[in-house]
Specification:
Structural class: mainly beta
Distance between the termini: 37 Å
Oligomer: single chain
Helix content: 10-25%
Number of domains: 1
CATH class: Mainly Beta
Largest sheet: 7 strands, mixed
Shape: globular
Number of helices: 2
CATH superfamily: CheA-289, Domain 4
Number of strands: 13
Order of helices and strands: EEEEEEEHEEEEEEH
Strand order of the largest sheet: 1-11-12-13-3-2-10
Length: about 140
């Protein structure tokens, strides 16, 4: 196990039956998924687009990137900003923000998109997931 730092505030969310978390400082917002317009353009991980704060935002299924369960009953979109571009993640449900004191992280060596495991949650690295979209120029 490795220590991630003195504490980490994380948002927990689900993809299918998989519990995941992401550091809250990386998140720009969380919205209902109702405003996602399906699209077949762009990389296969892009499931649609939406307007968020006046900006067209690609929405991806992070489960297809991190090789976890695909979103089954999507209810929320988690919005990130990376290098001036917004990217949304379609998730089944955004649950809660919690502070994990002095989190012990079990490293994951076979999945570059997952920082590690905290308890039962996959700690997902948004920069790497979002690079799948932002590196393609879309």
């Amino acid at each position: 196990m490795t220590q991630a730092g003195p504490s980490a505030a994380v948002l927990t969310f689900t993809l299918g039956e998989e519990w995941c978390c992401v550091e809250i400082s990386r998140i720009r917002g969380v919205v209902k998924h109702e405003s996602v317009t399906p699209t077949s353009e762009g990389p296969p991980q892009v499931v649609g687009t939406m307007e968020y704060r006046g900006e067209e935002t690609p929405v991806v299924d992070p489960g297809s990137v991190i090789e976890a369960a695909d979103s089954q009953d999507a209810d929320h979109v988690i919005i990130f900003e990376q290098e001036g571009q917004q990217v949304g993640w379609l998730v089944d449900r955004a649950h809660e923000v919690t502070t994990v004191p002095d989190p012990e992280v079990d490293p994951v060596t076979d999945n570059e998109y997952v920082h590690g495991v905290i308890g039962e949650r996959l700690w997902v690295e948004p920069r790497r997931v979002n690079d799948v979209i932002t590196d393609t120029g879309s």
